[in-house]
Design brief:
about 300 residues; alpha/beta; five-stranded mixed sheet; 12 helices
């Protein structure tokens, strides 16, 4: 009997140690900084919408205690305290929430200050598909969610399905995706550009300009895209740019104009990338059959 009790005590102790080891995790963020966690964080502040969405897609929305002002999906995060912009959050409000970890963009100016105040910061800023998957897996490790790889495979399957849905006759046609005013465009190396490539489309932005370059509008005039993808502006605003009125995309009304809610989906490298691919594919198929209007 004594041997049995000794064995039980040993087994219980071993299980406890195993659980502790599983709870401990060290993650290297996009600065190259290794951040150690003794336990899975229960109070999380997220200062980047794509990171907010990833936490929720992993089933752990309840651990969020505050977000940046742009985090608006899923609906429940709108009820959380808003802590300013991701690049310049209200540090005092973040500190008052006593987070176990702050998820922030690598480019955020507040990272060093938050760390100096004693907070743990994980700086993650995905820029392409591989980054998005890596960050999703890292957040799964942080949260102790073991099926993160399976969830990402579902996202990848959605992107592949969207690619299959694009009409074969449209493949290889030239696309210009304007991210925001400047104008700033989505280059081939960005997650948006990679999605366009997977959909079989040709990005007019030269790869050497980087993921999201500010471009000279004359580049678009010279490239003569077959499709233009844009957010808030209407076609009239584009036609007012010098030389744009004669672009094949505007002549044929091959313009994909997205609502603010759809634009959020398109510009966030996270768990809704499959929905972003579907939005693009649907628009290509919808407007792709249009022909240039006859002008007097």
């Amino acid at each position: 009997m004594a041997d049995t009790w000794r064995w039980l005590r040993w087994a219980v102790g071993a299980l406890a140690m195993a659980g502790a080891a599983q709870a401990q995790v060290t993650l290297t963020d996009d600065r190259g900084v290794a951040v150690r966690f003794e336990h899975a964080p229960q109070r999380i502040v997220s200062l980047l919408p794509s990171l907010t969405e990833s936490v929720c897609a992993l089933g752990e929305c309840a651990r969020l205690v505050g977000v940046d002002r742009y985090s608006n999906w899923p609906e429940r995060v709108k009820a959380l305290p808003q802590l300013g912009g991701g690049l310049d959050p209200q540090v005092e409000l973040v500190l008052a929430l006593r987070p176990d970890v702050v998820l922030a963009a690598h480019s955020s100016r507040a990272v060093a200050r938050l760390e100096n105040l004693g907070l743990k910061v994980l700086a993650l800023e995905p820029r392409n598909h591989a980054d998005a998957r890596r960050v999703f897996d890292q957040l799964g490790q942080l949260l102790g969610v073991t099926d993160a790889p399976r969830l990402w495979r579902q996202i990848e399957a959605g992107v592949a399905a969207a690619a299959q849905s694009v009409a074969p006759a449209l493949r290889g046609q030239k696309v210009y995706f304007e991210v925001n005013r400047g104008p700033y465009a989505a280059g081939p190396a960005s997650f948006i550009g990679e999605t366009l490539t997977r959909l079989g489309m040709a990005n007019i932005v030269p790869a050497g300009l980087g993921p999201f370059p500010q471009i000279n509008p004359e580049l678009v005039v010279q490239a003569r895209p077959d499709f233009i993808l844009i957010g808030e502006r209407g076609p009239q605003a584009l036609e007012d740019r010098p030389g744009w009125r004669a672009l094949p995309a505007l002549q044929a009304r091959r313009l994909c104009q997205f609502t603010p809610e759809q634009a959020d989906v398109l510009v966030r490298p996270g768990p809704r990338m499959d929905e972003a691919a579907r939005l693009m594919a649907e628009c290509f198929n919808r407007v792709g059959a249009r022909r240039p209007a006859t002008r007097p």
